[in-house]
Amino acid sequence: MDADKNREDAILRGRVAIVYVLGTHYLFLPFAVLCMSAAMLHIRGALWLSALPLIFQIFAAVGANRLKTAYDARDENDDPKIWARRFTIYSAFTGSIWGLGAIIWFVPDSFPAQAYLVLAFLGMTATEFVARGAYRRAYFAHAATSIFPLVVLLAIQGDAYAQMTAILVLFFVGVLHTYSDAIERLLDESILLRYDNARLITRLSEEKKSAELSRDSAQASERSKSAFISSISHEIRTPLNAILGMAQLLERSELEKAQRDHAKVLLESGRGLKILLDDIIALSHGGEHPLNEVPEGGCDAGQAARTVGRLLQPNAWEKRLRLSVNASSGIPRAAADPRILRRVLLKLAGNAIKFTERGNVEISVDTLEEMDGRRTVRFRVTDTGPGIPQNLIGRIFDPFAKADDSYARRYNGAGVGLAVAKRLVEAMSGTIGVESEPGNGATFWIKVPAMTAGTAEEGEAIEKIAAPSGLTLLAFLPDTEMRTTLEHLLTPFNNKISFAASLSETARLAARGDFALVVTTSGEIDALASMPGKHTPLLALARIDDRQPEAADTVLRWPTQPSALYAAIGFLMGSNDSKREPSDADSDDGIIDATTFAELEKSLGFKTLIDILQSYMATAEHLTTILSTTLEAQEWSDTARVAQDITGAAGGLGLTALTSAARALAQSARDGGDPASLAAAAGDVLAQHQRTRDALRRLYPDLAA
């Protein structure tokens, strides 16, 4: 009922609005002036009488203007019936003025004058119909009061033409009146359409505001969740990484077998907890996939599979399983981030080993031609485990889903690994699936796009190249960023870099032959090569928009990855491991063992390694402080103990110089060395600690924060 009432009210409001817009225009003036002019031809004397209706009409126009002003200033909640009645009264009043005009302007016994007057009145009536037809009562009030006196005057003439004209006038008014029905229906449809549109717009606006509020609330909730996850991740990962780092260092230290076994259990449990934490955090980020940063040249699919096989081989040996890796020949490089790809394969192959009691696990790589002509690289992990029931395959990639709860519980499975793997594969624009039958094992497969022909053959082949050590280099690099990066990448590994101030100085120093190679930019390399006395290998660092130098022994695009720099230096040095025998000036051991650090970063990941190094630096600072205290007090037994602790902490990370110095101090203290030699050895430990700390901060700037 309320809806129907509202629609009726909207229709009436629309009609009233139309008549107030059109009905207050001065449409009568042309007809009134014509009628008055015609009447003056017959009226002799009292000419003012013929102008009287026109004067009244002018006053009516002023009143209409006031009425329109009042309507425009009305309250929107006013009853439209009140304004409809007011306009009806105004229409009757103006119609009465025309009725008075009919009496004054009517010329008896002159049918031409009467016909002229009828034509003028019919034109006026039709015009007023346009203005007042939206509200029939207003039109009828105007037509009745304006036309009725003219009809009466024509009828009392007694003349047949006059009487027929009176009938014609009535017929014309009646026809217009019937048209008003159709006009109102059309107007009502338009008004209702506008009414419904207005309601729809209002509702949409309200829904938009509600949706925006919901969106803002969801975004705020998402930001809070992300902030919470970031905070809790840091708060949990930091001590966990410290535990893992110290457990790894403890495992590598000189312990008895039982204690080493305990450390191994601690390390394995901590790693399992870290993997679970990483998976849960990855799932909690919803649709935020990690970036699939495809390196230039893509990823060596076979190498990725073999790397995973090597990492998991000890796990397979422990369960007496046969782990094999089979890669077909001619496999194209995969358009995927090798880190993400290896992470997924580690999850799939790790699960296969975990759930397989006997038999074998196979990682295979081949190439497929898809229906749309695209080539994809397919990885398959096949095991001889218990298999997966068909009714569970459809949801095995859902978060916290397990193929068999009782079996998974035996291995502390949380059911998130496959969900994370699916998300990572989709981040690489790939697909993942599984084929299995209960009792016959399972085959998990992933497909990733293959690189198109013509891509560079760089990538995995240079990832394993260790940093060069024991080299003396000469560099002329006007770019500060290049100099800083080169120092950070090379000096931690006992390489020495001399920076020349000018091209001429570079040529003069290079001519002495004291440097393994010269590093400069592509714009300077040709000029340097043309100078006399040059016989040192030249390495050019070329930015993307630089021209290709002709005289360089090797050109390296800049910016570059550390492995690419090490590979270029290794090529110039003429050996695969980029090393040479140190000269007398370089007789000290390297500060950092490059191979150990490369393996740690590869197995643990960059962020985990940073966390471990931060824990190490805090521990090392504490131990060296204690060492300084024992040195001052000459408590040599405590000095030996602290030196042994430093040996264990530094040795597990490949900090060779510090490990050697601390081991020498511990041995000298145990052997009862004299105080002077012990003090000198302790001073060497403290000095090597400072060098190691500075080298680590140059290699990993994040440690300086």
Structural summary, described in words:
The chain is of the alpha/beta class and 705 residues long. It is 62% helix and 9% strand. It is built from 22 helices and 10 strands. The protein has helices spanning 2-22, 29-40, 47-72, 80-105, 111-132, 136-155, 160-252, 257-284, 301-318, 338-354, 390-393, 405-410, 417-427, 480-490, 503-510, 522-530, 562-573, 594-604, 606-633, 636-651, 656-670, 675-699, and strands spanning 322-327, 360-369, 375-383, 431-436, 442-449, 472-476, 496-499, 517-521, 538-542, 554-557. It has a 5-stranded mixed beta sheet with strand order 1-2-3-5-4. It has a 5-stranded parallel beta sheet with strand order 7-6-8-9-10, with helices on both faces. Helix 16 links the parallel strand 8 and strand 9. Helix 2 packs antiparallel against helix 3, helix 9 packs parallel to helix 10 and helix 19 packs antiparallel against helix 22 (675-699). The longest helix has 93 residues, at 160-252. It starts with a helix and ends in a 6-residue tail after the last helix. Residues 287-291, 402-414, 453-464 and 575-589 have low confidence and may be disordered.
